[in-house]
Design brief:
alpha/beta, globular, binds NADP nicotinamide-adenine-dinucleotide phosphate
Length: 304
């Protein structure tokens, strides 16, 4: 057990900080299940895809290009159907939705995993701050476009982060969503991750009985997500990582647990961490904020 794992201990279900995606799926036969994952070519998404295919699931693997998704798919043990989905390009996301609909896939779980973090400079695309566009708006278009394909007991898993607590005042800056005033890398990432969390919460209230939606903090893991962080910070991260961070197999565990574990079939609207139910910030539990964000997001994506 790691130092942190030892300190935190396991949750009531016996899983915890150190649990890996393989451990959380031990004994599960996922053959016949189809699971969609965004960001399937790197970090947690790639590990989740590896373990889900290992257990027999067919994975719809989404990456910025079909080539990237296919290359990643070729490295894992089972069946991967690759799709292009560049989340910061609404037309690419809508094309991915059309392609998946045309191919007629029914989906047992969607893992909205892709993300970018802490861009040093405010970057705009289609008039939106790039983390908000990629992490939240792109996934909103994708998931809402595919809800009709979810099976009766289908699950939606949205990657949030403990960074959802590092938000601008009010949680979501509805008066300045693209953070024109006082852009900061971490609060901007935090706003997008709070949006992911609130999306899962609002979605859980809209899904028919039987379907569930939850948000996940995977832990802190040294993946390509740190690509925009300064070199010195990454060096510290790399050194600290060996002692204090989760490994990638541990980082992928909570999203995989939420997507396929039988215990999670009826849990909905929750924030999950270390393969257990966790407590988010007050903003993360604010249903009025979640509803307002849903309405605003619908207006924003209609204009994209
Ligand atoms: N690692 C952590 O410590 C940590 C902590 C909390 C939350 N999370 C969350 O966990 C999720 C997975 O992160 P990770 O650590 O596995 O990071 P990662 O290794 O950087 O993987 C991120 C994935 O997202 C994809 N992606 C980024 N921008 C995209 C876009 N515009 N369109 C389509 N795909 C895009 C990347 O594709 P490319 O490789 O082509 O860029 C990559 O496949 C993220 O949502 C992140 O916010 C991670």
């Amino acid at each position: 057990m790691s130092l942190v794992g030892l300190f935190k201990g396991n949750g009531p279900n016996g899983f915890g900080y150190d649990t890996t995606a393989e451990q959380v799926t031990e004994g599960l036969d996922l053959s016949g299940q189809t699971i969609l994952i965004t960001g399937c070519n790197s970090g947690l998404g790639l590990e989740a895809m590896r373990v889900l295919t290992l257990r027999g699931a067919t994975v719809l693997g989404l990456a910025r290009t079909k080539e990237k998704a296919a290359e990643a798919g070729a490295t894992v043990p089972g069946t991967v159907v690759p799709y292009a989905c560049e989340l910061s390009e609404p037309e690419s996301v809508r094309a991915a939705v059309r392609a998946i609909l045309d191919d007629g896939h029914r989906i047992d779980a969607m893992i909205l995993n892709a993300g970018i973090m802490a861009l040093p400079k405010r970057t705009l695309k289609h008039g939106h701050e790039l983390q908000f566009l990629t992490n939240h708006l792109g996934h909103f278009i994708l998931a809402t476009g595919l809800l009709g394909q979810l099976t009766e007991k289908g699950r939606v898993v949205v990657l949030s982060s403990a960074a959802h607590t590092t938000t601008p005042r009010g949680g979501i800056r509805f008066d300045d969503l693209s953070l024109e005033q006082g852009y900061q890398a971490w609060t901007s990432y935090g706003q997008s991750k709070l949006a992911n969390l609130l999306f899962a919460r609002a979605l859980s209230k809209r899904l028919p009985a039987g379907q569930v939606a939850n948000a996940v903090h995977p832990g802190v893991i040294n993946t390509n997500l740190g690509r925009h962080m300064p070199g010195f910070a990454m060096a510290i991260f790399g050194t600290a990582g060996r002692l204090f961070l989760k490994t990638t197999p541990q980082g992928a565990a909570t999203e995989v647990w939420a997507a396929v574990h039988p215990d999670m079939a009826t849990v909905s609207g929750e924030y999950l961490a270390d393969c257990n139910i966790a407590r988010s910030s007050a903003h993360g539990r604010d249903d009025a904020l979640a509803e307002r964000l849903w309405t605003v997001t619908e207006e924003l994506v209609a204009a994209l």
